Amino acid sequence: MHILTLFLDGIGLGENDPEKNPFAVADMPTLHELTNGKRWLAGTGRQESDRAIFIPTDPRLDVAGRPQSGTGQATMLTGLNVPKMIGRHYGPKPEAQTREIIAEHSYFKKLVKHDKKAHLLTAYPHGLLHDIERGKTLRSSIQQAAHESGNPLFTVEDVVAKRALTAEWTTDMWQKYLKISDVPEYSPREAGQILARVSRDYDFAFHSHWFTDRVGHRGPFTKGVELLETFDAVMAGILDEWNDDEGLIIVISDHGNMEDLSVRHHTGNDIPTLIIGNQKSVFAENYSALTDFVPACDKILFGL
């Protein structure tokens, strides 16, 4: 039994408004089939289908202000209400107190300590990794949680060997903007197939995508639609390879943003959690907030 988590930064459940919400117009047949043909919107509510359970999830955690990535991701990967612990939502990167909490309570670290295999399956270009190592930029909370396990972040070489994917799933953006030409080319659906296969090497595999949050801040609307349709194709590839008996696929976020492109800041909306696999009801029991992710994973991986 293993878990593959697919994280999309900054996606919430917004209004059914085709002028400002890409989720209201994007063609997402794979994901919509899992939610009984319903779009991922504020009015969708909890859905249960043959393969999946969809749960609107609270990222606010009884803390005033708009949820942020630093504390939201830290909450997700520690099981603790980090915004309440530090007294505010904070981001995009984790400040010192949040980093201390992650260092002690990282779920990646906990799993490795208990002889489970856990890894962040997102690879990063050498330039970014160099900047992190020399202190020019902080790790995100997700990267920090993975770092605390003692496992190195994946690199270009891991993409070449198909041990990891870029944050954008395919290598198109690396080739176009970073001029990294020695990486394989594959479609979004093929990327999903690779991700499903690689995840079988781990008890807990996690892929982190960030560009949805950037589009939420900067637009344009058409790019938001394109990202969602690309992700739907990635999901189709994952499901091509996935046996629902082998474990769970979890789709999750940290806060709302891209569901309302009429503004350029985060929202206070619920976020989606999608759970796929035969143990979905076990994971979903009493699940309602971002703090519930780690305890729900524990039920699957440790039988707690």
Q: Give the strand line-up of the largest sheet.
A: 2-3-9-8-1-7-4
Helix content: 25-40%
Mean pLDDT: 97
Assembly state of the chains shown:
single chain
Elements, N to C (H/E) = EHEEHHHHEEHHHEHHEHHEEHH
Describe the structure.
The protein has 304 residues and is of the alpha/beta class. The chain has one domain (2-270, 279-302): Alkaline Phosphatase, subunit A. It is built from 14 helices and nine strands. The strands form two sheets. It has a seven-stranded mixed β-sheet. A two-stranded parallel ribbon has the order 5-6. Strand 2 (47-48) and strand 3 (52-57) form a beta hairpin. It is globular.
Short description:
The protein has 304 residues and is α/β, with parallel strands linked by helices.
